[in-house]
Amino acid sequence: MTEENRARAPKTENNGVWHLQLAPGDIPPYVILPGAPERTEVIARGWQDAQLVANNREFRTVKGVFEGVPLATVSTGIGGPSSEICLNELSKVGVHTCIRVGTTGCIQPDYDLGDLIIAVAAVRKDGTSDTYIGPEYPAYADPVVVMALMAACEKLGYRYGLGLDYTTASFYIGQARPIKEDGTGYHPSDMDKLIDDLTQAGVTNIEMETAAQYVVGRLHGLRMGAVLAVISNRVTDRWGDEGGEEKAVKAATEALRILADWDQKKRIEFNAAYSGA
Ligand code: URA
């Protein structure tokens, strides 16, 4: 440990951020955020000059160039706490725009496995964002990032919806899955009503990161968005990728290319989240 290291903001020996092991300027400001480290290689497969930049715990960073635009991908791990670490440290190394790619359980019957959901906003049951700010504060995507994701999905011809996401800190009980497949074991009574109540309230999907990332990212001055592949349908009880993850990756990559183009042309002059307001 270097002599000047401080508990309130630990740094690596080359003055980098502690968990991601990146120094300012190591990666471009446009970043795709998968949960799983191994997804970073899949995401960067179509990029030129793709190179591994850092690899520590659940945080793997790869950078490269897509159609002339420098991009990076950094894995967040599962859930809010590791997402919070990732976004804090990305903001310290010069990143300004992040798009989460992941999978989600859908709770509306009209979505098929493999469809995409662009999460416009998210219900904050993530358990991390409330360490930053009270529950009245909304978790919502940067509107310009949503526009870019829509433009990307339209261009690529993907079936997608604009979703109201529900983010929870649990995959099993918190998503109304029984602890054991046969239904025995701990089973809180309100679990039986969860999916039905959320469906009635117009919630589209359930997953584990988006609300935490939207709130924490915004409070760090980052533009945030998320495109999620429907891998399960909790109403019809089906599970399967059906090419959705690959589509989500392509949509996020194209959306970042579009955003870089808009930024360069100053197409969107004012963006409150981005300018730190
Ligand atoms: N991710 C989740 O958190 N839940 C699902 O059902 C699918 C993916």
- The CATH class, by name, is Alpha Beta
Give the overall shape: globular
**Helix count, DSSP H or I runs of 4 or more residues:** 6
Describe the main β-sheet briefly.
Answer: 5 strands, mixed, barrel
Lateral strand order in the biggest sheet: 5-9-8-6-10
Brief digest:
The chain is an alpha/beta fold. It has a single domain, classed as Rossmann fold.
What does this structure look like?
The structure is a single chain. The chain is built from six helices and eleven strands. With 277 residues, the chain is an alpha/beta fold. α2 packs parallel to α5 and α3 packs across α6. The mean pLDDT is 94. The chain binds uracil (URA).
Task: Set down the secondary structure blueprint.
Elements: E1 30-33, H1 37-43, E2 48-56, E3 59-66, E4 69-74, H2 80-92, E5 97-106, E6 116-125, E7 139-140, H3 143-156, E8 160-168, H4 191-200, E9 205-207, H5 210-219, E10 223-233, E11 238-239, H6 244-264
Parallel strand pairs: 1-4, 1-5, 5-10, 6-8, 8-9
Antiparallel strand pairs: 2-3, 3-4, 5-9, 6-7, 6-10, 10-11
Helix pairs in contact: 2-5, 3-6
Bound molecules: uracil.
